[in-house]
Design a protein that fits this description.
By secondary structure, the chain is mainly α. It has 22 helices and no strands.
């Protein structure tokens, strides 16, 4: 097995070309932004390939190439219980949420997922729900964006020996340029390009790794000799309730999908039902290819390189070891770009939350696009400042926002798609309950089961410390669903649900 280190010049040249392409997309898409709907939803004109690939890249992006492969590398076969939950998220969002989301948001001119959640809440509660949802998106996504900037900075520093501020400024600057110019269209097209590149890499590199490890039989033989028995055990050596808690916990990561505004926006923006159905096939095909590829890469990597200290570095290690220097440089450059461009969908969603849900655009009628761009620039600048001023450990603690927003918004989306119209106060209360219950379990999970606590806090700390975090991801859905389904509105004239497309 070769070990040619990719030349920094190759990585840099590839990155420069890639960033020029991204800015070119932004310039092209700028002419398509005439109003707020164009800027935040691309004029509801996404075709199947753009909708499907941009959704897939936004929901996983570099996380599946680095984080998921690293998790499987560290934990073993039992880590694969995560995949069914993630794939189920694709199915439910596209096939169950999709028809109602697309039809109603188009018919009623909704711009954000918050509009859809508050649509039947009545004039007294609708503004409050939109404002609360917008604040939660803005608050969590600003830190989430900063965390992504920080992760990208670390990757750029390791490749080019740049200062942290230089790494952050370069990446944020490129994203801001094409995001400001092209809005949702530019973000979706760049994510489509990113998703296509990731799919190619997820076939190429795992195939080379499996071949180098002697094929499936060679991998199994090597792992059975070098690893503990639990590594190849689907149960991971967990007995009793430990296994179902772990398996359900990691599978329930998919629950977060149901409340992510930047993902639901793709369903709102797809141009018609045919494109939605085809887009699902594209997104689902991507998910199957990439997750299977990264699982194979992780297991083959464990057989080839059993002593990698940081599993999330496995991808880089195998690219350098298995590919010619030039090709390894191109692959690494693509992943560095993917790490950074994960930010673009979060940035457009945070901008929509501030400009639309918090009603800033209403202060300047006729200048909605200008205000939306100004808000995006301000959010990006704030995220850069946070990245450079706060320690990385703070960012680690806010990445639970995936689960928190899922529990806050997901139950409301589920209820409305199921034909239930909750009372306005119940929607507002359910959003608070889902979000803060997740926060509660997350805090007690950080405290740990061995902390010097008693009574209810001790019980919460014990439950929150169960491997797989099932209580942090599942329990926060209970109270919101109970509120939403128990406190329904009586039928009101003038608010019929739109007919679902055939």
């Amino acid at each position: 097995m070769g070990s040619a280190e990719p030349a920094a010049g190759v990585v840099l040249a590839t990155l420069i070309v890639y960033k020029i392409v991204l800015i070119g997309i932004g310039v092209w898409a700028a002419r398509l932004n005439r109003n707020e709907s164009d800027f935040f939803l691309g004029g509801r004109g996404l075709g199947a390939w753009v909708a499907g690939l941009s959704y897939a890249a936004s929901t996983s992006s570099a996380w599946v190439l680095l984080g998921f492969s690293g998790f499987v590398y560290a934990v073993g076969v039992s880590a694969l219980w995560m995949v069914p939950g993630i794939w189920l998220g694709y199915v439910l969002v596209w096939c169950w949420f999709g028809p109602r989301l697309r039809a109603e948001t188009e018919a009623e001119g909704h711009v954000t997922a918050s509009d859809f959640m508050a649509a039947r809440a009545g004039p007294a509660w609708r503004p409050a729900i939109s404002a609360l949802a917008g604040f939660l998106v803005l608050f969590t996504f600003v830190f989430y964006i900063a965390a992504q900037f920080g992760a990208a900075a670390i990757a750029f520093e390791s490749q080019f020996d740049l200062a942290r501020w230089e790494s952050v400024a370069i990446g944020a600057g490129v994203i801001l340029i094409y995001g400001l110019l092209g809005g949702f269209w530019a973000v979706s097209l760049t994510d489509t390009l990113q998703g296509a590149i990731m799919a190619i890499i997820a076939v190429l590199l795992p195939a080379l790794a499996v071949i180098a490890a002697g094929g499936p039989s060679g991998i199994m033989e090597a792992l059975s000799v070098s690893q503990p028995a639990a590594y190849l055990d689907p149960w991971g050596g967990r007995a009793g309730f430990a296994f179902p808690g772990f398996a359900i916990g990691i599978a329930s990561i998919g629950l977060g999908t149901y409340g992510q505004p930047h993902l639901l926006a793709r369903l709102m923006a797809v141009k018609d039902e045919k494109a939605r159905r085809q887009g699902f096939i594209v997104a689902m095909g991507w998910g199957v290819i990439v997750y299977i590829g990264m699982a194979a890469l992780a297991l083959a990597g464990r057989a080839l390189l059993p002593d990698v200290a940081d599993g999330e570095a496995l991808f880089y290690e195998l690219a350098a070891a298995l590919l010619p220097a030039v090709m390894a440089g191109i692959v690494i450059a693509a992943i560095l770009s993917a790490v950074m461009s994960t930010v673009d969908s979060l940035l457009i969603a945070a901008s929509a939350a501030a400009a639309h849900d918090l009603r800033l655009v209403r202060l300047f009628k006729g200048r909605e696009v200008m205000i939306s761009r100004s808000v995006m620039a301000a959010i990006c600048a704030l995220a850069v400042v946070l990245t450079l001023s706060l320690p990385a450990t703070i960012f680690d603690r806010v990445l639970f926002s995936w689960s928190a927003l899922g529990a806050a918004f997901g139950p409301v989306i589920v209820a409305r798609v199921a034909g239930v119209e909750p009372q306005g106060w119940a929607i507002f209360a359910s959003i608070l309950a889902g979000f803060f219950t997740t926060v509660l379990f997350y805090i007690f999970g950080q405290v740990g089961a061995d902390a010097d606590l008693s009574g209810l806090p001790a019980l919460l700390a014990y439950l929150a410390a169960i491997p797989g975090d099932p209580f942090e991801r599942i329990v926060p859905w209970f109270a919101p669903l109970l509120l939403l389904f128990a406190f329904r509105q009586t039928a009101r004239a003038g608010h019929p649900a739109p007919a679902e497309p055939s």
